[in-house]
Amino acid sequence: MSSTEQPVRVEYVTDPAAAMSSLAAADRFGEYVMYEQPDGWVFAADPLGGIELDAGELRTTWAGETTARAWSGSPADTLDAALASLADLSGEERGAYGWIAFEFCAYSLDVTSYLNQRTPLAQLMIPRIEVRIDGGGVRVSGATPAETCDIHDLIAASQGAVLPTAHPVDVRPDVTDYQGRVAAAVAEIQAGEYQKVILSRKVALPFPVDVPATYRLGRANNTPARSFLLRLGGLEAAGFSPELVASVDDARVVTTEPLAGTRAFGLGTQADDAARADLLSDPKEIVEHAISVQTSFAEIASVAEIGTPSVSDFMAVRERGSVQHLASTVRGTLAAGRSSWDALDVLFPSVTASGIPKREGVDSVFRNDHDPRGLYSGAVVRVSPSGALEATLVLRAIYQTGEGAWLRAGAGIVSQSKPEREFEETCEKLGSVAPYVVRG
């Protein structure tokens, strides 16, 4: 146990989401990233240092001192090296948390002409305080004794608290001509320019949002693969991620979980079963899923030991809040000489949030989505001191900056797509968050 780590105080936490929302809402611990994995929850806060990467500059901060410089090459390699430099400054390997914007992919796919020098690409932070909740209770590290008592008191007070009241949002107005943009993309696909693209639409909210409260209410009504809540670099966000972009564990096993093919869920047993049967028999959805799995397999194979890539749970159906998806898992063992960041570089952005082929699909996104995506369809990232990495796909989320709050959702467009059906799919996906927005 380190000198700053406090003894474990075992508590039975019945509602970890309420505990994490309470810590975020308390506003006592600086910037933070909360991340939920299947085996537990972590609230990482009060950065000791951090990394900001945009298209024109890399900024690293440690102990209040910031260094800025130009960079070139791969943004994944740049972040990997910057984390190593912070480890040198701190004298030890530390975990990192943060986010990666969709535009991060422009370098590996050679479509940087759409970016300007100030386009944000990534932000990571090294926390002073970490609060972990799992089956063993609550563990606080890095905090002072007074802060530790405060943290336990906040968690205890959060248990059994009444859920916040929502201010549901109307997501049906098509103010960005989504259906028209889908029709244009279908024409490009039918002309042979690419096979698939995920186009999205932004829904601006007419009021400021209480993001921690929205997270708590939304988490009570969603079934995500991962979830997150953050305030970092001027951005607040909360989301209920349906899939992993990339995971590399301590055994160097690389995993990605492409989800493609969607129907509504939560409308009652009979309607859900009918939608599931329709999903499993719809040629458009099956084709969309199959080519996504094929692409993910090829990407993992490019960084994995020969013979190790495999597909499991092919075309399983997984429920994610207000929708159900066709899902598969693709794995391989990272080849010698390859790093976790190499794996993320080839798998990012998720094929289910970009297009096929990826370069042409991303080019279509930049042309047809009109405004930068930022965190939408990017990733929230957690890097362990050992170098293991997990990046979860940012969808089914809410975003807020000083300029306002918004939601965003997309759909996979292929040659058989119908604009009205793809618009309806965005409404179904927005239904995972829009009914649970809490006004600030």
TrEMBL record:
Swiss-Prot/TrEMBL GO biological process terms: L-tryptophan biosynthetic process
Pfam families linked: Chorismate_bind
Keyword set, alphabetical order: Lyase, Magnesium, Metal-binding
Cofactor (UniProt): Mg(2+)
Residue ranges constituting the Chorismate-utilising enzyme C-terminal domain according to the UniProt record: 176-429
Molecular function, one GO term: oxo-acid-lyase activity
UniProt cross-references to NCBIfam families, sorted A to Z: salicyl_syn (TIGR03494)
Record's protein name: Anthranilate synthase component I TrpE2/ Salicylate synthase MbtI
